[in-house]
Design a protein that fits this description.
mainly alpha
């Protein structure tokens, strides 16, 4: 399994040497990664009341997720493509890790600025900055998965 080396993962996917166990582990880890992110978000909002930005964020994320998966499916060759699930889950895990690692410093800076701006109190409700930031991260994630799945589809 690869957690960072996306080119090696792409090579394995191109020549078809990922085993069913590998596919399962990528899918399992992807689901765990996704569920942990939901838990973190839920934990952050336990004591807060939702505001209009929370609702807007949920709607945008849901629409973007659906459109993103469809776009990635198209980049894989749509109905004439091969191994969409195998490619999607394995590439998604690595792309998610990369986006998280590269966005973490900016997330820390934004969190610090929010604490300072809120006069040392931590606000857990969404705001416009959160929506824009998450939208950009989602677009980057979708782009990365689509790019790499397209590379594999073109070479197969």
């Amino acid at each position: 399994m690869y957690f960072w080396k996306i080119d090696k993962l792409k090579d394995d996917l191109k020549i078809g040497i990922l085993t069913q166990k590998d596919e399962f582990l990528y899918a399992l880890l992807w689901v765990i990664f996704y569920q942990l992110s939901i838990v973190v978000i839920s934990y952050d909002n336990i004591d807060s009341s939702n505001n209009k930005y929370d609702s807007i964020s949920l709607i945008i994320d849901s629409i973007l997720s659906a459109l993103g998966i469809y776009y990635i499916y198209i980049k894989n060759g749509a109905s004439s493509g091969k191994d969409f699930i195998k490619r999607y889950f394995s590439l998604s895990l690595v792309a998610s890790i990369r986006v998280m690692v590269f966005s973490l410093p900016l997330m820390i800076i934004i969190a610090i600025l929010r604490v300072v701006a809120d006069d040392m109190s931590i606000s857990v409700s969404a705001n416009l900055v959160d929506i824009v930031f998450m939208f950009i991260l989602n677009i980057i994630y979708i782009y990365l998965v689509a790019k790499h799945i397209s590379d594999i589809a073109k070479s197969s």
